[in-house]
UniProtKB/TrEMBL annotation:
Protein name as catalogued: Gfo/Idh/MocA family oxidoreductase
Signal peptide start and end residues: none
Key words, A-Z: Oxidoreductase
Pfam family of the protein (one): GFO_IDH_MocA
Superkingdom of origin: Bacteria
Domain called Gfo/Idh/MocA-like oxidoreductase N-terminal: residue spans: 4-123
InterPro entries: Gfo/Idh/MocA-like_OxRdtase_N, Gfo/Idh/MocA_oxidrdct_glycsds, NAD(P)-bd_dom_sf
Gene Ontology terms, MF aspect: nucleotide binding; oxidoreductase activity
Transmembrane segments: none
Species for this entry: Tectimicrobiota bacterium
Amino acid sequence: MDKLRAGIVGFGGMGQRHYRAYQGTGCEVVAICEFVLERVVGYLPDFPRNRIYSHYADLLRNEKLDMLSVVSNGPTHAEITAAAVQAGIGRVFCEKPVATNLKEAERLAETIRHYGARVAVNHLRRWSGAYRRIKALIREGVIGELRHIYFQCGSTGLGNFVIHAFDLMRFLSDSEAGWAIGMLDKTGTPNPRGLQFRDPAGYGMVVFRNGLRCFVDSSEDTGIPYLYVLAGTYGRIVIDELAGSWQVFTRPPEMRAEKLTRYGTPLAPVPFGGGVYDIVELTHNGLVELVGDGPLSCTVEDGIRSLEIVMAFHESEARGNARVELPLSGAARERVVEIA
């Protein structure tokens, strides 16, 4: 069976991870678009120079591709993905965020439906076996009913990083955000990728339609990695991905009928087996799924719903940190935010 012909738009650190992730997917990367030529040549010195493009339009015009990874900066994701679909590429793997405003994201979704393409958004925890096991434990009631999620990570932008936490909240709860209160961090720490990049950090609260309460803090006055704490009616899950620490605790079965107000009720550890957080591996899993014909774990509609929570934080900030109802309406759906 011939390999599918794949291309990559954007060949910075994440684009290079996509290149590695394509190994073993049944695809061959035959074309790359990157305006900094040295990024490609330095990483792949033997890659054909005539297959390296400085503009995505030239790549789409000159290459016959079956699949494309869109790994450019956030403001161009929707534009490039739509162009790829319109050019006849049947499978596209788009990095998050899908867009920098909701109207543009919705136009992209309409284009995808019109052309019948398969488009997945790389909220990569959805392809994690460990997180799928966590979701199964929640569904089985091991920690009772999921009531609270806390996410903390230092100095991370809402649109590029915290959006992953928002998507994970949706994934684990099988619910959608009902309202949010958000604040943007005003510390003003320069983006390590360069002064031209801007994606504000922030903190706030999201309440889901099923009553789940979620709190996030990505403020720029801390510099520590991701931490998730999930609390149920009688159990807790604590996840530190980089440390490889996945801890599950619950009340012993004989104590689950005790009142929730009983202070000091002990929690016992639940064997879990841990999990590995590897960006290349999880991206690979998403690519394999996209190559197939089955349901997609993260569709463009999922990408839009997670983006909408980011937009709600920006909207809340613009309204003096007021409570904002979701789905957003009116001018809030037109607002363009900085996610680059």
